[in-house]
TrEMBL record, chains A, B, C:
The keyword Transferase applies. GO terms for cellular component: cytosol. NCBIfam families: asp_carb_tr, PRK00856.1. GO terms for biological process: 'de novo' pyrimidine nucleobase biosynthetic process; 'de novo' UMP biosynthetic process; amino acid metabolic process. Residues 166-310 form the Aspartate/ornithine carbamoyltransferase Asp/Orn-binding domain. The keyword Secreted does not apply. L-aspartate binds at residues 93, 179, 233. It catalyses: carbamoyl phosphate + L-aspartate = N-carbamoyl-L-aspartate + phosphate + H(+). Its EC number is 2.1.3.2. This is Aspartate carbamoyltransferase. Pfam families: OTCace, OTCace_N.
């Protein structure tokens, strides 16, 4: 799947996964987003970058923050946005996904943000997209969520500087079901993180990710001395009920409490992709505390998505 | 709840209820809306007032006219509008209302129009809103619908002039379930109406409103000599079935027919917040007749909401 | 119904059906759309034609391509667009369709695109529309889909030139349930097509259309020597199950295969209004083959709808 997103000259044509995206490309996106941050988060005139271009939000899975973040990113670049309401779509009449893409391409839509519960749907669309049309993965199954990975890197970059190689980063929780974890881990490795720690209940650890970091079976050990703590959402909606005894039990064993946070470096930052299950994977006092950068992550999503859209549609 | 909407210097920061809003403030909003009316209702270039600002329609209750009215008001002030589809929202994943607010604030959304079936939701969000972010109540339970109250005042102002003190105003029908009635009554009292008449079936009269006007148990008595007749929607969807015997029965006892309208002053105006139950609380011949200002009310909603948004986001 | 769409001076005020629209008018719309095509399908600055105007998509039936096509047409003419989500509308509270129209008119909405499963709904709204307000039929029951008819004419015009009189055109498939077939047939006759062929299973042939062309009970005979082949979607959702034995059976008898296409003129074009049932009414190899203009039809929808909106709102 990873090769579908690159043009023959190596340029990024789509954004489907961070797997295989070069360090140079990641850094360029982060720098672009940093520069756009001012514009994105201030009430000023819009940038004319995508004037006359059309962005389609093709969300086959419900979302608030992600759809709105992409919508605002597009609007603040002066693009026109069409929200494709899937419940109302012709897919009900049996039109295939590819025909839907072809149809919207024929109306001269330029960029499609695709969220789907099945792994591989954005890659499938990217394979079939016409020249000049870009597909951005807005999250597919537990495969990838590359713009979340990128905005997380932007957030770390703002707090910890350009050099990721010295950072200790702990990724904690329901790694198995998390597309965010996969995209974060790929980006962290590409940006040079050596000390990458993965901590999850045994039944929620994705076996294929073991190769990327040091695996811990206790949260305390993973947190000790960390610079960055990335908590994951417990995705109860995707799991067999029996995996987790109770919310209270999960919090006791795997939740980020203030006591546990004290084990990390004093200037460690706490991240979460949202939406949070408060008092399940994270204590409210931590989520709302001084080391939390969770709302900044949300804010960074807008300029990062502006950077991605600009890059894919430029030229 | 009423104090959450004012800044320390007394300035209006949110609009949650008309309870406690000063006469000066009401009059300023009405005058602003009068001035905007021309622009709002003519196909001209938009006003640049809210260029670069983002308005979110956060509707937890279905609505046509109100959402569209706010959307058009925002668009005609050059704001960007995001419609937050609650059925598709992360609230399904268990995110709290406050986290939803925080998330959208972090993306630099400036004003939230909130409609919710539970009393107090807009006030709750206003309590938690960041500085510079405004909450507008788009209707909560049977508590308040302040922009409807304001647009009703604008409509009366256009027909009856600036001095409300001499007007006889009758509010008639399902007062118990009506957030519109509450906001109208508060505004009418603040603007100096002395002769305020409330008429409702005993079981649909809100006891706490008795203090605001003279209570009638027959519609004919309430209408006699009135300048303004504000009919209310019979909110069958909010009531125990048994309260009303039948539509025909209700119309016979409480409906505004042409015969009854003849009891009012010859130049009395007939108002209704919509959507109407024709031949239940109001005869079609009255609703569509020469004394009806019902469609003008709808039209006045756009400039009044423009006035409110301008006022809350200005500076 | 056909007269509701014309003003007293003969000018087109609404677009409800192509029945009765003059050849001169059809040709003017086609020429306007041809001129707009460049603009509509290129990422350039928008046309200012409808700046300050408001277009409402009033879709009571689900749709993807049609709603999006109208939305993009409006946006590319600089109009503001409101999508009226019917599931969330006040029609649930019992407001009549006419009251909904009145309400949106009062907010100064200028043009309504109406799609409804019942024949005659757009005409009903056109009868009640205020002066200056235009209704465009976005498809009603099996009655009419005039903008689809127009974009099909634009597509034929681009491939076969201005003179329709020498063309052999075959309309094939589920004519009974097709509003597209009705609008196409009316436009083709008005534009001078002499050799119009209708081919359908006996139970899917609309009796009242027999007068417009030569009826065939075998697809091969209808295709032989044709310049234009218009395939129709098999509308299984609108038919008694028993009418069609199976998809495979239908394809065998009525599907457009490559073998059958070879019976037509070598430069014949293949059209389909979409969404397609692949391998039911049309083989994928034909739909995606060199004679197919199906995606061009979709693309032509945008400039044609721009032409219609411009014409109805101009002046």
């Amino acid at each position: 799947m990873r090769h579908v997103q690159f043009a023959e000259d190596g340029r990024l044509r789509h954004l489907i996964t961070l797997d295989g995206v070069s360090r140079q490309e990641l850094e360029a996106l982060i720098e672009t987003a940093l520069a756009l941050r001012q514009t994105a988060l201030r009430p000023v005139n819009k940038l004319p970058t995508l004037r006359g271009r059309t962005v389609v939000n093709l969300f086959f899975e419900p979302s608030t923050r992600t759809r709105t973040s992409f919508e605002l990113a597009a609007v603040r670049l002066s693009a026109d946005v069409v929200n494709f309401d899937v419940a109302h779509s012709s897919t009900k009449k049996g039109e295939t996904l590819i025909d839907t893409l072809r149809t919207l391409e024929a109306m001269r839509c330029d960029l499609f943000v695709v969220r789907h519960k099945e792994n591989g749907t954005p890659a499938l669309l990217a394979e079939h997209a016409q020249p000049g049309v870009a597909i951005v993965n807005g999250g597919d199954g537990n495969h990838a969520h590359p713009t979340q990975g990128l905005l997380d890197m932007l957030t770390i970059r703002r707090h910890k500087g350009e050099d990721f190689s010295k950072l200790s980063v702990a990724v904690i929780g329901d790694i198995l079901h998390s597309r965010v974890a996969r995209s974060d881990i790929q980006a962290l490795k590409t940006l040079g993180v050596q000390d990458l720690r993965l901590a999850a209940p045994a039944e929620l650890l994705a076996p294929e990710l073991r190769a990327f970091g040091q695996v811990f079976d206790r949260i305390d050990h993973a947190i000790a001395g960390a610079d960055v703590i990335m908590m994951l959402r417990l995705q109860k909606e995707r799991m067999d009920q029996a995996l987790i005894a109770s919310d209270a039990d999960y919090f006791r064993q795997w939740g980020l409490s203030q006591e546990r946070l004290a084990l990390a470096k004093p200037d460690a930052i706490v991240m979460h992709p949202g939406p949070m299950n408060r008092e399940v994977e994270i204590a409210s006092s931590v989520a709302d505390g001084p080391q939390s950068v969770i709302l900044e992550q949300v804010g960074n999503g807008v300029p990062m998505r502006m950077a991605v859209m600009s890059r894919l549609l430029a030229g």
